[in-house]
Design brief:
By secondary structure, this protein is α+β, with helices and mostly antiparallel strands. It is built from 16 helices and 44 strands.
Length: 885
Amino acid sequence: MKPFIKTLLQKFVIVGFLCILSLMTYAQKLSVIDLKVEHLKNPMAIETANPRFSWKIISPIKNTLQSSYEIRVGTNKASINLGKDLVWEATVSRDQSVLIKYNGAALLSKRKYFWQVRVKDNHGNTSAWSDVHFFQMGIGAMDWSAKWIKVAETDTSARSPIFRKEFSINKKLKSAMVYVTAKGLYEARINGQRISDTYFAPGWTSYKNHLQYQVYDVTTVLKNGTNVFGVSLGNGWYKGRIGFGNQHNFYGDTRGLLLQLLVEYTDGTTETINSNESWKYAYGPIMASDIYDGEIYDARMEIAGWDNIGFKEDNKWNNVGIMEKGPEKLVAMAGPPVKKHEQFKALKVFKTPAGETVVDFGQNLVGWVMLKAKGAAGTKITLSHAEVLTKEGNFYTTNLRSAKAQDIYILKENTAQIFEPHFTFQGFRYVKIEGYPGELTPENVTAVALYSAMETTGKFVTSNALLNQLQHNIQWGQKGNFLDVPTDCPQRDERLGWTGDAQAFANTAAYNMDVSGFFTKWLKDVKADQLPNGAIPHVIPNVLGANDGASAGWADVATIIPWDMYVAYGDRQFLENQYESMRKWVDYISSTAKNNLWNSGFHFGDWLFYRPNDDNDGRAAVTDKYLIAQTFYAHSTQLLINAANVLGKQEDVAKYSTLLTSIKSAFVREYMTPTGRLVSGTQTAYVLALQFDMLPEQLRAACADRLVANIRDYGNHLTTGFLGTPYLCHVLTRFGHNDVAYDLLMQESYPSWLYPVKMGATTIWERWDGIKPDGSFQTPDMNSYNHYAYGAIGDWMYRTIAGINSVADNPGYKAVVIAPKPNGKITSASAELETVYGTVKSSWKLENGLLKLEVSIPANSKAKVILPDLTREIGSGTYYFESKI
């Protein structure tokens, strides 16, 4: 063989070997991560008979799609890798990797199951089997053998009762699960230690309809021999002050505990320890506890060791009473629990001009303060909470209305103590501390943020520091108000699940955090508290009244959030679960409308729209409430049609499509002149009419021009309230006025998004001018400084500035549209979104007249990139584009 031929063959062999090695490496890097069941990682209480499985695929090869998957579910973690003890295994040739329904043998209540998956891709690679994950089935209604226990006397004491029970473990333990709930709030302990890191359990639901229970694995907590349960109860939303008018005992007047421990031994036997007549109760050091008013804790009343082994009960301990089982259904916890998150050290401790000792934590947050103190027994320390200081620098709590928002600690003997509340939370940046023994230093106070444990999914940053602070404020508004239910505000005597705020913010919420479980749980209450006639209450859970509902833009939460969540997470179950509620709401409107015109009933309208104080020339942006109602009537009907299409309900599609045409015709007849002018010439009127396609197509561009003229007339300021604001910039961009949308976003003077930022806000305000330019405050009876509704602009920021858009026809970001629309006011922007398929990234900068864009798309997804001078279809991977602007 000639030398050059031999050398050539050697090179071919080497290249071939490297190619094979490269492909092998790629195949090894194909992997499966982030396994979930019903949107949850290793859930402890699944109630559906056919739970759904999801996973994400990691691959270094571009344009990777799943071609098939293998899944197996078994009863034994050790043997599942061997394919033994399986209840279901399947090999399926399809690209679905999200919400795959279990199709095996019937799953048993309380049983833990293990599962794993591996996939093949369209390049011929096969992943390794994933790590083994688990899910546990919930407890069935017939499996509850525990009894509801309470204090023996009438439950009128403000003090928190404490319950205890000793029990023995005398065999080798295999597993131990606690199932627990309460009427009120509970904190459960075993052998002196909390059994979980969750707070405010069992959470707030429509208690008269359903009550959540939690499940905790305490296998590693129990000891051989004697063990002790210790449980404290608080009033919470169930029995404490809630709603308006000093309303107490809304759901019931007696706190109760239901607890069941299921123990499984290695010899195959089981044992159940229940709450029942054998438990004892006393009263502990929590002297009073209320959501609005705070907590009083007297350390002198502590009973040392009461929740631990070796404690001797004295005559303070009494036999418990037994409660009758109520009509409410016990359900597994569907949403994320409330947990502790960020901690904030004191920025400074200072004296106000009024002589008050105040701590500034630098961030408006929701949670509480951990306090370290040492002093004489009986020393009373009072912590008062506030969001802002007056312009003179003094502590300000008038906007809390009747909420005391105070935590009081009474010291025991001269020993170092650390205090924190148990059954209350506060919204604050500043804390006034009275009665502290000695010098208060920053090391003695730490603020702790508490909110529902939602995974952060979105990141957004630009070249503009004010916009970045706005994004920060939006996120912290969400954190503070997503505490088990989407509250309107977290600090005053309200803290209710206002539906209008929630629907306005839902899309932004789904960019910032994984709210799939959060809204799954809350929508159950929307459905449960819906009135028999189909009306939706103003707040969910409904603690107002049967007549407090059916307001346009508030009650439409019944259609808006289910559709938004379906698009965000690709989960048909949002629509399946809520469809009847959606339909009943639209049918309610139809039943009250006359000739398809909804011009009756109470409506909040465009809540907190722009109103100058001395409005002599008609500058207040008042929008006809019935005009607004008609647009939302159309919107809810359209969303019902969308849901019916997805669910294959074609008769409803036809029925409600005909209705929609009539609704829009009625709008045109009643509210529009022949040239397209509306009876209300406000920004909100034109925004809603354009957003919901109420106008004849040939008149829409002219109406958008009228909207722009209005904005220019107000000096590039918005005048919208809660209902117009979420759609304002979307409409401007859609109709070719993206520059005007940017002008509004970048406006720094009142009213605007950046005005509160310039005024030092760290969350979103309820009012555009919660603090006026002269430092004075808006009306104190409704002036929250942590109110997320106006943060709905975040949706436009992700979609238009960063360009990350969902596609309703391919929900859950199975398909993505990347279409940033930059403006010279900022020079760069970058965003990430963790979707159910993986991370989508869009990052751009402007250089030398070019838009330079970097895009990343996760495996098993695809995207369309739309730039000023190009449109490109891409698969997974990272790509770079340049476009003239």
